[in-house]
Amino acid sequence: MDPVIVVGAGPVGLALALALARHEVPTIVLDEGSGLCPEGPRSLVLGADTAAFLTRIGYPRAVSDSALWDSFAVWRRRQEVLRIDLTDSPTYHLPQHRLQRGLRDALTGTPLIRLVPLNRVVELEQDRDGVSLRTTGTQDGSTTWWRGSHLVGCDGARSTVRKLLKIRFPGRPAVDRNAIATVRVDLPFDGARLHREPPWRGDREASARPLPDGVWRLDWRLPPGRPAATETVDPHATWPGIVTGDTLLTRVTSTLTGWCGELPRFELLAAADHTAQQRLAARFRSGRCFLAGDAAHLHGALGMQNLADGLRDADNLAWRLALAWHLHSGGPQPGGSLLDGYEAERRGAVGARLRAVDQSMPLLRPLRGWQQTRRSLLVGGFRKHAPLLADGQLGTGRFGGAPAYPAAPSGVPARVPVQRGARGTTSLSELLPATAPGVLVPDLPVLADDGTPDHLHARLGTTFLLLLLVAPGTAVWSSEHWLGAGLMPRLAEVAAALPVPAEVLVTEDYPGAGPHTVLLIRPDGHLVGTTQGAVAEDLLALADRARGGPATLGPAPDPAEQPSPQQVDSPS
Hints:
CATH class of the domain at 4-66 and 95-171 and 278-355: Alpha Beta
Structural class: alpha+beta
Mean pLDDT: 84
CATH architecture of the domain at 4-66 and 95-171 and 278-355: 3-Layer(bba) Sandwich
Number of strands: 28
Oligomer: single chain
Radius of gyration: 25 Å
Low-confidence stretches: 227-244, 367-379, 408-422, 552-572
CATH superfamily of the domain at 4-66 and 95-171 and 278-355: FAD/NAD(P)-binding domain
Helix content: 25-40%
Largest sheet: 8 strands, mixed
Number of helices: 15
């Protein structure tokens, strides 16, 4: 079998390659750049699911490389209107350059991954059996043809792969504009803060989010149409003595003075401008080719985490590609909807986020003129909607929480009514019970079939399916006792007879599930379904659902589309 080709060596492309390697699938990662990871101001808020995904694909330092937030506060003028205690729900803030370096370190120890820098994609064609790709060297102009079983474009917002596949990328070009700076400074508060209409002049909204080593990421929302605020900034300048970047310097000094009462000593490390767009590719799949990350979607308004959704793309796609790859040659093929399920689930989840922003933006953006003056008196109205501002910043609710993938018979994720609580909107995953098909399973203590203790999320991706048996009292007995008692022998037989590899785990308790319940879990942690007891027919039906329907014999089906070879002069 040919390897899978991944175009783009950013965080999403590297994470996808590592996830495929965990399933013993070789990949070639092509990148137009040199692969260097310079420090910058961009960062990522890790949710429980994305932190667990990074850990299991080979970046266990993801949490230790991050800053832990203990609270999140929303202020308006001189008044705190919302404070969220994060003690029981840890939130981690990871610099993007640390993320990329950690993934590259994991990649160097993986012989299944070949990283090829300084190669630009210029031509693509696919046929019944695979994908052919032509690249040119960015330094020597050399031409190379590559052959792969599948192709995934993780090459960013200006994706060459997307353009060669002629996939439209509609949306709104400028929803939010922000100036970003990372500053080493000692601020008089802990946790993250978002400040709407601060008392100092010149800013509508400013936020401070802790990073490791005493560094803070500062963000300012810019008025539309203004010149860039960081065009002349010297990212290596320190205070005192900074003389460049007057517009940014004014923002930094006025913001720090407003929060501290006087200007503290600080060091400006990096700065950038960022324009948040809302775009969604018309398709995430074309035959044997797929899009992921920024190449497939863009959203960043209200602090939303597009990179987190890119990592979820990689997690969702990797096990599907791995299953199709391993079953490709001469054996039973997975059901036709296995690979189509990636687009149905991930495009549906990101589309729901974009709709949530469109619905919430009028409530969270100040109006102009007399309307703004009138609304400024309605402090109660702002307090009511302030929890929405936390969702994007914290990666929670409809703006950033872990998605659920319940599918209607058509395969399109079902819609549910919007609910709001003290922390903003409620995500679909939070609305559904823990036993509903499609939800992300909680991270519970489990026992392997040899009696080894572990946690459920740590076992994800070690095989294609997990069979989790709810057996109260297991922990008080030795494994020699319960391995040969009750449902375990029968469940082990059923697991061995399933059409894809499966592992049996045992847990004392699972929310909403009674004793002798068996839960079938996908490699990305989403629940396929539940059965009562080890009924072979029921578990086989669930396994077929996970792999897109009953297996078929013969060669792989024709791609949905076969674009003719094309050439491009620039990825812009």
